[in-house]
Amino acid sequence: MTRQSPTMIEVDRHQITYFRDGRTDGPTLVLSHSLGACSQMWRPQVAKFEAAFNVVRFDFPGHGDSSAAAEGITIEDLGRLTLAVCDRLGIDRFHFGGLSLGGMVGLWLGRYAAERIDRLVLSNTAARIADTRLLVERLQTIERDGLSSIEQSVMAGWLTSDFQSAHHEATAEISSMFCRTTAAGYVNIARAVCCFDFERELRSIKVPTLVLGGEHDRATPPEWNSHIAERVGNGRYHSLNAAHLSNVEAAEAWNDAVAEFLNAPVV
Q: Domain named Peptidase S33 tripeptidyl aminopeptidase-like C-terminal: which ranges (predicted)?
């Protein structure tokens, strides 16, 4: 079993920072982060899955330590970037887990790169943002006052107040992670999120899919997630007692549900 320091590679003219942990001879689990976060949000999952999996995570452009995200970037671009990273690492087939933005990328992969995906985990995400006003208002605030001006609002949506009160260190780490995001990276990819609409393509996804939703998630409410599970061809839904970053707030329950799903026989 190996634990790797962050490594940077050039992919599609982007400098992408990635981590690769766990068993080099095991099945691969690729983890894809939320808007405004980075690969560090998956630390609770690395600790759980590295004993059995080759765990790969990387920072999207403009997030973490990766280079800037260009204007006009799309969810499809991020899906193709994910495939390109896997190609560079010599990974053909893999399980994919994505939360929020990462879940949208997972939907695209499940539809257009199904031959590469063994199992798909979608968490706290949406096939379409029904009302983009909150995101649009955030972008206007960022352009006027900078990224730090929305930190409090973002944290309130990511983690419940009870969790923040009881877990100061974890909350501070998540806040620090958000502050590493560039304003341009957040704005350009948030625009991609606002434009994403996969409703008509959900039924075309046949990859075995687990969808997890947070009972207290205001950004991507649980009904949006259960809706995806109902529409995809081979989906199931699991509810968690958490807000948006359910993999952090309900890490043990998230890990257990995903571990059971990945180890289940293909039907």
A: 206-264
